[in-house]
Structure formats: C-alpha cells, structure tokens
Amino acid sequence: MEIEKRAKSSEEMDGQKQPITTQHPRGGIRTLPFILANELCDRFASAGFHGNLISYLTQELNMPLVAASNTLTNFGGTSSFTPLIGAIIADSFAGRFWTITVASLIYELGLLSITVSAILPHFRPPPCPTQVNCQEATSSQLWILYISLLLTSVGSGGIRPCVVPFSADQFDMTKTGVASRKWNLFNWYFFSMGFASLSALTIVVYIQDNMGWGWGLGIPTIAMLISIIAFVLGSPLYKTVKPEGSPLVRLAQVIAAAAKKRNETLPEDPKLLYHNRELDAPIALEGMLLHSDQYKWLDKAAIVTEEEARDSSSTPDLWKLATVHRVEELKSIIRMLPIWASGILLITSSSHLHSFVIQQARTMDRHLSPSFQISPASMSIFSVLTMMSGVVLYERVFVPFARRFTGNPSGITSLQRMGIGFVINIIATVVAALIEMKRKSVAAKFQLLDDPKAIIPISVFWLVPQYFLHGVAEIFMSVGHLEFLFEQSPESMRSSATALYCITTAIGNYLGTLLVSLVHKYTGNERNWLPDRNLNRGGLDYYYFLVSAIQVVNLVYYLICARFYTYKPVEETRERNKEEDLEQANEHVSSNNLKDGGGKEEKIGVTKDE
What we know:
Blueprint: H1 2-17, H2 32-50, H3 53-60, H4 65-94, H5 96-119, H6 139-169, H7 175-180, H8 185-210, H9 213-233, H10 247-260, H11 277-280, E1 287-289, H12 306-310, H13 324-350, H14 353-362, E2 364-365, E3 367-369, E4 372-373, H15 381-406, H16 414-445, E5 456-459, H17 464-488, H18 494-522, H19 540-563, E6 570-572, H20 573-596
Parallel strand pairs: 2-5
Antiparallel strand pairs: 1-6, 3-4
Helix pairs in contact: 2-8, 2-9, 3-4, 4-5, 4-6, 4-18, 5-6, 5-9, 6-18, 8-9, 8-15, 13-18, 13-19, 15-17, 16-17, 16-19, 17-18
C-alpha cells in the first residue's frame, strides 16, 4: 500500500509539473540537418581543395612529382596532428561547438588566401605546357602556398576531432541506446561525407581542369562559408556537453598518485579502493567504469591511506588519490593504443597512392565519349561510390545477416570489422601493382616509354578495380577504426579519441613521406621507382609490391593485438538506476511485511544482464 501511495503521489506531482515544462529538450534527430549541412559543405570544400591539389602543384607551380607529393603528405600529416590540440581545447574549456565554429573560420581564411594566389598571376611561375625544363615556383610564391596550407591544417585541427563527438552528443550513445536504434551513426556519417566528396570530385575537379583554378578553388571557399552559416543557425537546438577540465590532466593525476603510492599494498577486495560517484558524475554521464584486473600497478592511485580515511569529509587531492573510474580511464587509453597503432602502417602504405594514381590516370585514355574525358582526380569517385553504396548494403544486408550468427546488434565487433578491412586493403594494393605492370607493358608495345606527355592507348577504367577495393576496405577499416576508438575511449575523452584517429593519419603520412623519399633516393637514377617527370620509366609497380609486404606485416601485428584485447568494463547509468529502484522496492516490501507480520518472504532480485 505504501508503495502504491507513493507512486500515486509522484504521478500527481508529475502531472502538475507537465504543463509548466513547455521547452523542448535539445538534441535528437532534428539537429542532424544543421550538423550534416555543415559537414556536407565542409567536406565538399575539403575534397574540392585537396582532391586535385597535386595537379595544381605540378601543373601550375611546376613542382617535381616527389616534392609535390611530399608537400601534400607533410601538410596532411600536420592537419592530422593539430586535432590533438583542438581536442584538448574542446574537452578542457572551450566545448565542441565553439571549437568547431572558430576552427571553421580559420579554415576559411586558408581557402581564401590560396584562392587569391590562384587568381593573381604574380603568385605563380610562368606556364609550362611541355613539362620539360620548367621554371619552378619561387620561395615567396611557395610561402603563400605554405601559409594557406598551414591555416587549413589549423582549421582542421578544431573541426575533425569534434564533429563526430558533437553529433553523438545529440543522441543516447549508451549500449542500450545504440542497440535500440536501427541505424549506425558512424556508417551514416561516412555516407554523408562520401556524398560530399563525390560531388566535389565530379563538379569541382571538372571546373579546375576546364575553367581554371580561380573558380576551382573559389567554389570550395564559398561552400565552406555556407557550412559555417548552417552550423551556427542550428545552435539553439544543439545539446552541448559542458567541458570538465583537461582529460590529459586527469591522466597525469592518476600516474602521479600511483607513483607516490608505489610502495603501498593493494587490498585484496577492489571495493576497498576509492570510489566517489558524486565526484565522477560530470565525466560519467553514460555510466561508471568498473574495476578491471589489468595494469594493477595503476590501482595504487586509488588506495585510501589511513590519513586520507580520517579526512574523508573534504575533497581529496586528486594528485594523491584518484577514483577507480579515473584509473580505469587511463587503463582504457593504454589498452587502446596497440590497436590504434596498427592504423599507422596502413596509412604509411597508402599515403601517396592517391597522388601516384592521378599521375597514372593522366597518361591513360580517359575518354567517356569522343568529345568528353574524365579528369584524373575524378577517378576517386569510384572509390567514393563504392563506399557510399557499401555503407547502405552493410547496414541493411550485412549487419542483419551477421547478427543471426553472432547475436551482436552491430553484426560484428569493430575489431573484426577492422581486420576484414586490413585484408581487403592488401588485395587492393596488389591489384594496383598488377595494373601498373599492364599500363607499362602497353606503353612499351607502342614505344611510348620515353614520352611523359603521351597518352597510352589503355583505358583509364583499368584503375577502377583498385578504387573499388579501396572503397570496400574503407567501409570496414576506416569506419571500424573510428567506431572502436569512440566506443572504447572514456566518454569524457571522445574528442581526444577522435584526435587519436587523426594522429594515426599524421604519423602515417610522415612515415609515408620518409618511405617515398628513401625509395626515391636509393633506387638509382636510371630506373628510379618514383621518377620526377616520366612515370613510364619508373618502377611504381615495385613500390606497390613493397607497401603490400608492409601491410602484411602490419596485419600479423594487428591480429596479435586484437587477440589479447580486453573491452572496457562499464556500468551503464540505466542499469545503475534500475538496480537502485529495485533495491528501494525491496526495502519497502520488506518493511511492509514486517509491519503486517506476514510469514511469507517476498524476494525481488535482478541481475545486471536483465
């Protein structure tokens, strides 16, 4: 009776409160048009800017192929390192909304400056149609390019680590919430980005090759401005998560506390370690991390000494005493690192492939009709189309089919998804080597090996199979990698986890530059694998076989890491609330039984899985 009365009174109170609450909750599906509009325009601008930039450097600034490729790869690496800084700023004090907004403005400045340099002839060397003995860009002309690329790199640093976490902030991302939805946020994020890239690689690249670089770079600049406006217009609807201090400081506090208590003895029962739900509540909105048995030396940071036990009323010094949740945050990051690192060599192997394939396509027959030919950079649309259609098929066909056998709401785990991607990527690179062998054999047959400007009578569509395979690999590897980092990182560090995804690209790009430079330096002058001007006399196929071998070694490393990986243990907030409600119900029923003098014992139990 007492429970019923309390339930009725609470219902009456809720009924009285309902008319007062007229404000709609923030977040949800209605925010996606604004976020995706921003992302579509942003990716359209980025793809239009970077997709054909190798042609701008080699054809307009007359840079040698290896120097141009290394320049783009180095700045690609820089733009993938800056997200760590952006993530720290967002998670520490600025928040994701303002970080994205300010970074977008910086990116816009970079696009604007390179567009101006493309319009004004003073900022470019004289044209060189023959591509022989060309006058290269002066140092002052290159500095305009470098400043523009640096601004876009800094802008990317604020946008890339925050977009996915900010999108996820609008939804319930607990296990229960994810399982209740019939769609995957990461799949549809990549689908949207693919659609924007496809538009840029068809429209913008065509304009760059046929109407000039002023319009070709001006359109991405305008698109980026539209993306900023769309994003800001949706601000009244967004759910924003208040930053709770630098996550790196919390990790440092755990390490410092563990080091200071290195001589303390761990209790046999982990429940005796320091727990403080009230302190950890702002950084554990979706659930508390549970204690795990790995890296026990870090548990010493949560040992409560006699002195700290006596002073339990005051807020603890977090440089001397850390909660179990904060210790487990650090453990989660440490567990993720070996899997995260497996993406580095994959990027190393593929960082220059896009630039080289564009140069291959430039020497091949690109006619779709007698009067129209496809742009070399637009060949990437086949990879993007594969990725876009593949994401839909993965979501609607593969996941339901795999779920029947695995019981996993996602079909397969993110680790399994990454492993499949690694294998497909190796196959794609081997296929690329075989196609390059075919291209050179046709050039030799028609005695065109010594003419770098000649169009070899072989269709450019021979390159489609490798683009198709790279697109399939991205569905599994790229989406799986980002999903893994997002799911397994502490929820308060998701911007930092997304930054880790970007840093994989950064380190991989820098190592890719080193690899290309070493190959270019040590493969001789006569038959250099990566020549500056004449790709027909090169050994690009040997380079492809080399990076395939690197990927095989990386796959073995990944399989070992995945075999021994332990998923983070988490107690979801819903589960906790459910247990607390049932505990209270147990107490009420027990008290009623005692009052009524009933001889029957009523047991209400629940397990976490229920």
